[in-house]
Design brief:
It contains 7 helices and no strands. The protein is mostly helical. The longest helix is centred in the C-terminal third of the chain and has 43 residues. The termini are far apart.
Length: 136
């Protein structure tokens, strides 16, 4: 029998995964940045292990979302637009325009993410080269 806490763990893990995918963040990079083992992180996304408040705070900060957006993703479909804000929006007609704008913003964010990862890689290579020179 599955209890409410097991369902909550799976829901929170699934929400974290959805947000990570929407933001185009790779598990490998997230784990390196947050110093979490890939296995431990996978268990969080799959809802196998409880997430600590500390890890929740780290992930929320890293993903640039609030805690409640992770805990209740379905009511924050546009990261910051809860049900009370969405009620004021034009239905249907605005949805297509919002989707187009969202897709453009998503592509821009992905491109910026790629650029920043390239810059990070270059900096890490330069640092490694400097460390090699110091050792010699």
């Amino acid at each position: 029998m599955v209890n409410g806490f097991e369902i909550l763990k799976k829901r929170v893990g699934a929400n974290i995964k959805k947000i990570r995918l929407i933001k185009g963040i790779e598990v490998k990079m997230l784990c390196l940045d947050l110093q979490i083992s890939p296995a431990a992180y996978s268990n969080i996304e799959r809802g196998v292990t409880d997430i600590t408040v500390t890890k929740l705070a780290l992930l929320a900060d890293y993903l640039k979302v609030s805690y409640d957006q992770i805990l209740d993703f379905e009511h924050h479909t546009q990261f910051g637009d809860g049900p009370e804000q969405q009620a004021d929006k034009e239905p249907a007609m605005a949805t297509e325009q919002h989707m187009e704008g969202y897709m453009v913003a998503l592509e821009q964010a992905k491109e910026e993410n790629r650029f920043l990862r390239e810059q990070n890689s270059k900096l890490l290579n330069m640092l490694a080269q400097q460390q090699d020179l110091v050792k010699k």
